[in-house]
Amino acid sequence: MTVLTLGVHIVDVLARPVESIPQGQDTHLLEQIRLTAAGAAAGVAVDLARLGVPVASAGAVGGDELGDFLLMIMARHGVDVSGVVRKPGEQTAASILPIRPDGGRPSFHVPGANLGLCLADLDPGLLTRARVVHLGGMDATWGLHDPAFHDLLRAAREGGTLVTMDLLSNMPDLMPATRAFLPYVDYFLPNEEQALMISGASEVEEAARRLLEEGPGGVLVTLGAEGSLVATASGTVRVPALDVAVVDTTGCGDAYCAGFIAGLLDGRDVTESARLGTAVAARVAGGLGSDAGLDGTTAGELGLLHDRAGSAHGIEGI
């Protein structure tokens, strides 16, 4: 295991293109329906595995058929799921995503077993043995809002483990508690709305600066079609998005995290790793689901894609 993704595990049911919800008992014919492993931990794990990075995942699913499916599909993609616990009597988290023609993704969601994940469900050795631990969705895993878990993160980092963190929701009530994790994180990767809510800032550059003061070595704020903002002690850098035809934006944030982590493991610096994250997210945006477009694609190939696109768009001097 090189990477451990820890946190939220979800089954996504996606359908496209959906222009409206049928009235009564009417039926609309669609082009595509998929079921995927998703969530801020499971989605990142699958993307890393597809990029050729050895990865394990830890979290909680129910004792139901959705849990069976989620573990099966993750294992099929090459993820070690031995750290995912089953919660009898609870439902596996799931989302129904009717994807609009422009790639937008309204959702219907059941949080399920993710809410019951707690410190007792974790094998501490998984964290200390990993080169990178990715915390995926700490805003939705309330059982890990525990000082003893912070101590475990501190011990892992002291042993050389790198810790990255992304969030799941944009719910204002869940944002403040996530600040407690920032002193134990090397790289924090929120989206723009999350960064503004947590920091209390009115614009993204100030939000990134404030979040850096909480302890991370780097803050990477994803900005959708505007790319991302990379902030470190050396300053801030804008990394533009790639110009691609968007089919579905589901999982683009998870794909960015996976590419960023793969870049760090490949020896790239923070900005170059963010560019790789951008390339992975662009590939995923071109298909349906959080792992779309990554079949048979290596991180190196995607990095070359972004390098070429960056030269064409004049961003190599960033």
TrEMBL record:
Example GO molecular function: kinase activity
Pfam families per the UniProt record, alphabetical: PfkB (PF00294)
Entry keyword set: Kinase, Transferase
Domain of life, per lineage: Bacteria
Keyword presence, Transcription: no
UniProt xrefs under InterPro entries: PfkB_dom, Ribo/fructo_kinase, Ribokinase-like
Any one Gene Ontology BP term: phosphate-containing compound metabolic process
Gene Ontology CC: cytosol
Record-annotated Carbohydrate kinase PfkB domain positions: 14-290
Keyword Transferase set for record: yes
Protein name, per record: Sugar kinase
UniProt source species: Sphaerisporangium album
